Amino acid sequence: MIQLVPMTQRAQAPALSQQLVPASQCLLAVQSGRSLSDVLPQVPSAQRPGVQALVFHALRQAGMTAALVKLLANRAPSPPVRALLQLALALMPELSADEGAPHYSAHTLVSQAVQAAKTAHDTQAQAGFVNACLRRFQREAAALLVQAGRHPEARWNHPAWWVRRVQQDHPQQWEAVLAASNRPGAMALRVNRRHGSREAYLQRLTAAGLPARAAGDGYGVLLDHGVPVERLPGFSDGDVSVQDLAAQQAAPLLLAGHDSQQRLRVLDACAAPGGKTAHLLEHADVDVLALDKDAQRCERIHDNLRRLRLAAQVRAADAARPADWWDGKPFDAILLDAPCTASGIVRRHPDVRWLRREADVAQLAHQQRVLLDALWPLLRPGGRLVYATCSVFRAEGSDQVKAFLERHSGARAGVAPGHLLPGLPEAGGQFNDNDPGEHDGFFYACLEKATT
């Protein structure tokens, strides 16, 4: 297990070298196959935001910096040295020009990276090597970047197999999708319609000094700058939730045309952490059964519902095994936000692209098929199942649904957004003109069951 080196608690911001040590160790952990969500909590809370910013940027440049290390080093460095070099290279002015990226002078970076190398046990003996590689990059940056950029993984900062798949799936938009996937996502909010209007909440944000604008449907908001949730007015009281604009389409799509006089029985089949469960309950008076295989993740559903003052039945169960939990009563509506590669949310989780393997796509597509076939019999005639994935891959979206419709003659495809691609406005025009592409990659299909 990789242990993060604790940083000294100081009243002022730590020196860059002090941040580079745990940041490079977090990067190494991801390269070793660990999720950044599991590693970051080991960094002292006071230092975590700065370290996270460094690691996020390094992950967004990891394809390019890996290629540069190969060009700069006559021999393959040890993994800890390689991670430190990649982190320092990512922060060089030539690779940190994007808005929101940390900015340091090349001189400062070299000095602080060498100091960081001297600090950590795994890199002490290679401090001179780190210094030589970074100084060579300073001298030859332009030529090295051109040479490295000839490789797709370096050019697009995604695995080569990922680049190929996006090219095949979206031949007209693939470059825009990859470019957008490498930019940080805007912080999107969903106003709790049971607690007040979007217009009133926008006024509260203005009063709190948090510039924002309306976006998406009637309750979506985009902040100009992300902030900790504690700064959001009324967050602890359930007045607002953090939810991407694409994810905010699930509840309205599932409940479209719902007669408010009829109380629907709804299944949220893969519900944790509960954002869509809560949105369903905010949107209409419905009875929701929220399932998740992981009991600990079910606690996150409970936490979300308590904060929002909402109630649902929550069970730890495998949605693919209805015999273990279903009472035999058909559901009026089913939301299946299926497990997927998460290829659409790499703006917010830049480690995902480096943790996934090409074989995962087929494995997850099989899991999605199993879930669809298991849940379809639970839907009443005339009912609606919304299938969703936070993926840009067609194998987890349109191809999956096409195969499902071929297997089930009693199913038909209703009106749905289909593939929502980051960096591109929705073709159906459901997003307003102020937020073109300001959403994660997502897929939605609406499957309706025949009445006879």
From TrEMBL:
Q: Which UniProt keywords apply?
A: Cytoplasm, Methyltransferase, RNA-binding, rRNA processing, S-adenosyl-L-methionine, Transferase
Q: Which EC class does it fall in?
A: transferase
What does the UniProt entry say about where the protein is found? Cytoplasm
Task: Return the InterPro entries for the record.
Answer: MeTrfase_RsmB-F_NOP2_cat, MeTrfase_RsmB-F_NOP2_dom, NusB-like_sf, NusB_RsmB_TIM44, RCMT, rRNA_ssu_MeTfrase_B, RsmB-like_ferredoxin, RsmB/NOL1/NOP2-like_CS
Keyword presence, Methyltransferase: yes
Q: Which GO terms describe its molecular function?
A: methyltransferase activity
Residues forming coiled coils: none
In terms of NCBIfam families, this protein maps to: PRK10901.1 (NF008149), rsmB (TIGR00563)
Q: Which family does it belong to?
A: Belongs to the class I-like SAM-binding methyltransferase superfamily. RsmB/NOP family.
Name under which the protein is recorded: 16S rRNA (cytosine(967)-C(5))-methyltransferase
Question: What's the source species for this entry?
Answer: Hydrogenophaga defluvii
